[in-house]
Amino acid sequence: MKKLLGVHYTDDYDNDYCYLETTGEGWQIGQLPDEYLDAKATLRYLVAKPIITLDWASESVDADMFNVVYETTVNVKNEGSATAENLRAWVLFDTTEDGMVYSQIEGNSYDLKAGSELKSVFTSSVPRGVYTRLRIVVIGDNFLIQEKVSKWFKT
Fold first, then answer.
1. What residue numbers bound the domain in which 7 lies?
2. What is the domain count for the chain?
3. Contact at 8 Å (CB) between 6 and 13?
4. Is 126 found in the same domain as 83?
5. 147 with 136: CB under 8 angstroms?
6. pTM of the full predicted structure?
């Protein structure tokens, strides 16, 4: 390993850091203002991770005496810096009773690369004349659950 010249920092894992950037005016990259000569540096590790965002649109596409059929398009984006592993989207139509649903569909599992998008279309049948709301849930192995919920409406 080369010997570092100038001011540098060694972290708990024996990694050396010698790049310095100031945000003040009148200083060049690599220069250290006098008021920071004895300051202690804080190293913040950046860990690659997926950041999932989603939007959706839904419309009724068919109906009969008993049911209304909805087509729901779910668009998922990975705006993070790592692949989202085992990503799955769920489309649910809730009942007014806690924990109960009229319809629940789980999409296929995908690994969604950083910067990628996924569009899925779901078709659901819901009883006619009931109060419901649409719930979209995106889950996976290495990111926070994302959920969007519509307002209550009558089919």
1. 1-45
2. 2
3. no
4. yes
5. yes
6. 0.74
